[in-house]
């Protein structure tokens, strides 16, 4: 038998009284975005649950995608059966025969929202339970925690059978907490910072600083590939490429080695903040983690942060490298992050950046530059593209083998 639909149960959002419909609509549009690679699916949502109608689409890859989308508490694949007692009996027999192994326990939990149906829920439990015994005489019924709880629901249009409850990713639907600008390098930390923000419902836009020809097209593609990996948790993400070459050259010329890093980061922060203001973001998110590198001391953080009053969220700030790598592997960004394409910071990085930059000195060096003009030109030169989820790898393989 083929699953006909997947029933989706909402997570934490069930507790958010008056925002409920807004949360549900957001989750629905995120699911549609993430599953847009499957054109046959139809998605409908109501107050209590969502329905994803498969229309012939294979269940497994869709289920794999659903497991990652924030805001889903759990979901169940469902068989649709005509409202006919003999067809229902046949269906539960088929399903249980397929699942059966020695010692398996089960029960039937029927529910009837169509009260005109010929059997009530108690009668359904008996009749369908008996049907299972007909084909599997040695199977055990167990009311408390059976291995298989066969849920049968008689609705107006049809009957539905499900027996599996798959845990979702939890969290909040992406976008329900407003928008933040993720400063995304090609490194390990910032994609993890992005993932953790998405989990709390923050809609992110990825801001990436590129300094061609010092940085290669490979470095840019790496940042875009990382962004694509993040789309599977809540849908499409705007990718913003910022032209940073002029600023890097200017800093290199006007500031002493030891301060290159601090001043570079301050420019990035100013530009990200300006882009945020234009695009309606509420916060800035970055991948800073304390003490990993000289530039990530508290003194550095203070000097860099001094250029804005906008809240800066640092989701990985207290995690150590191994913890961050763990998450990066889990979300499948690690292998991309370790590709050997240098980003702009590595190329212009001094051997020994200042670990305790003095704001007074920083400001003195920056006074030699046209800060406003440099920032304005960078902001005017941004390139925005929408990054969409990729098709699951096995799907692509199937397509290719179909073509051969
Ligand atoms: P990551 O692994 O994210 O690169 P990191 O530990 O290497 O972090 P740094 O390279 O010092 O740390 O960068 C600190 C943060 O500054 C990054 O996490 C990122 O948020 C931001 N950043 C650095 N370079 C860029 C860039 N080219 N474009 C956008 N953001 C950047
Ligand atoms: Mg880095």
Task: Describe it.
The protein is of the alpha/beta class. 41% of the residues lie in helices and 20% in strands. The protein contains 15 helices and 15 strands. The strands form two sheets. Strands 1, 2, 3, 4, 5, 6, 7, 8 and 9 form a nine-stranded mixed β-sheet that branches. The chain has a six-stranded mixed β-sheet with strand order 14-13-10-11-12-15, with helices on both faces. The mean pLDDT is 92. Magnesium ion is lined by residues 185, 187, 345.
List keywords for this structure.
alpha/beta; 15 strands; elongated; single chain; binds adenosine-5'-triphosphate; 404 residues; nine-stranded mixed sheet
Question: Can you summarize this structure?
Answer:
The protein has helices at 20-34, 59-66, 85-99, 121-135, 189-199, 217-230, 245-254, 260-279, 298-305, 321-330, 334-337, 344-348, 359-366, 371-380, 393-403; strands at 5-10, 42-45, 49-53, 72-81, 105-112, 140-141, 148-154, 159-162, 166-170, 179-183, 203-210, 237-243, 283-285, 312-313, 383-387.
Largest sheet: 9 strands, mixed
How many helical elements? 15
Separation, N- and C-terminal Cα atoms: 29 Å
Please provide the ordered H/E string of secondary-structure elements: EHEEHEHEHEEEEEHEHEHHEHEHHHHHEH
Secondary structure blueprint with pairings:
Layout: E1 5-10, H1 20-34, E2 42-45, E3 49-53, H2 59-66, E4 72-81, H3 85-99, E5 105-112, H4 121-135, E6 140-141, E7 148-154, E8 159-162, E9 166-170, E10 179-183, H5 189-199, E11 203-210, H6 217-230, E12 237-243, H7 245-254, H8 260-279, E13 283-285, H9 298-305, E14 312-313, H10 321-330, H11 334-337, H12 344-348, H13 359-366, H14 371-380, E15 383-387, H15 393-403
Parallel strand pairs: 5-6, 5-7, 10-11, 10-13, 11-12, 13-14
Antiparallel strand pairs: 1-3, 1-4, 2-3, 4-8, 4-9, 7-8, 12-15
The structure holds adenosine-5'-triphosphate and magnesium ion.
């Amino acid at each position: 038998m083929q699953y006909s639909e997947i029933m989706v149960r909402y997570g934490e959002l069930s507790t958010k009284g008056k925002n409920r419909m807004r949360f549900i609509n957001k989750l629905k549009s995120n699911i549609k975005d993430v599953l847009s690679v499957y054109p046959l699916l139809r998605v409908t949502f109501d107050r209590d649950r969502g329905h994803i109608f498969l229309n012939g689409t294979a269940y497994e890859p869709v289920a794999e995608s659903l497991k990652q989308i924030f805001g889903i508490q759990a979901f169940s694949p469902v068989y649709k059966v005509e409202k006919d007692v003999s067809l229902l009996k046949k269906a539960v027999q088929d399903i249980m025969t397929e699942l059966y192994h020695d010692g398996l326990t089960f029960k039937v939990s029927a529910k009837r929202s169509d009260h005109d149906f010929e059997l009530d829920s108690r009668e359904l439990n008996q009749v369908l339970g008996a049907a299972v015994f007909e084909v599997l005489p040695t199977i055990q019924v167990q009311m408390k925690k059976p291995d298989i709880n066969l849920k049968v629901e008689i609705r107006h249009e049809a009957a539905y059978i499900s027996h599996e409850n798959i845990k979702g990713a939890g969290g909040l639907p992406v976008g329900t907490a407003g928008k933040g600008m993720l400063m995304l390098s090609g490194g390990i930390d910032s994609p993890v910072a992005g993932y953790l923000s998405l989990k709390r419902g923050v809609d992110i836009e990825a801001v990436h600083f590129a300094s061609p020809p010092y940085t290669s097209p490979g470095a840019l593609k790496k940042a875009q590939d990382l962004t694509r990996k993040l789309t599977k948790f809540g849908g499409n993400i705007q990718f913003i490429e910022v032209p940073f070459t002029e600023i890097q050259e200017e800093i290199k010329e006007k500031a002493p080695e030891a301060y290159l890093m601090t001043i570079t980061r301050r420019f990035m922060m100013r530009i990200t903040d300006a882009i945020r203001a234009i695009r309606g973001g509420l916060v800035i998110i970055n991948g800073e983690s304390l003490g990993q590198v000289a530039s990530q001391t508290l003194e550095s953080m203070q000097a860099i942060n001094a250029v804005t009053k906008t809240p800066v969220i640092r989701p990985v700030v207290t995690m150590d490298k191994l913890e961050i790598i763990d998450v990066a592997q889990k979300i499948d960004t690690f292998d991309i992050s370790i590709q050997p394409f240098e980003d702009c910071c590595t190329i212009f990085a001094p051997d020994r950046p200042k670990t305790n930059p003095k704001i007074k000195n920083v400001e003195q060096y920056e006074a030699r530059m046209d800060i406003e003009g440099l920032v304005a030109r960078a902001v005017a030169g941004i390139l925005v593209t929408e990054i969409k989820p990729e098709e699951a790898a096995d799907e692509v393989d199937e397509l290719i083998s179909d073509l051969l």
